[in-house]
Amino acid sequence: MAKTISIDPITRLEGHGKIQIFLNDDGGVKDCYFQIPELRGFERFVVGRPIEELPRIVTRICGVCPASHHMAGAKAVDGCFGGEVAPLALKLRDMYYHAHYIHSHIAHFYALAAPDFVCGPTSDPATRNILGVVAKVGLEIGGAVIKARAQAQRIQQILGGRFTHLVWCIPGGVSKGLKPEELAEIRPMVANLYEFTQFSLKLFKDVVLGNPEYVDLILNGPYTLDVQNMGLVDGNNAPNFYDGKVRVVDFKGKELCKYAPKDYMNNVAEHVEPWSYLKFPYLKQRGWKGFVEGIDSSIYMATPLSRLNVAERMATPKAQEAFEEMFGTLKQKPCRALMASHWARLVEMVQNAEMLRKYCADPEITGDKYRVIPHGISGEGVGIVEAMRGTLTHHYTCDKNGICTSANLIVGTTNNNAPIHMVTKKVASTLIKPGVEPNEGILNLVEMAFRSFDPCFSCATHSLPGQMPLEVKIVKNGEVYREFRRKC
Question: What angle do CA 397, 403, 405 make, to 5 degrees?
Answer without folding.
Answer: 40
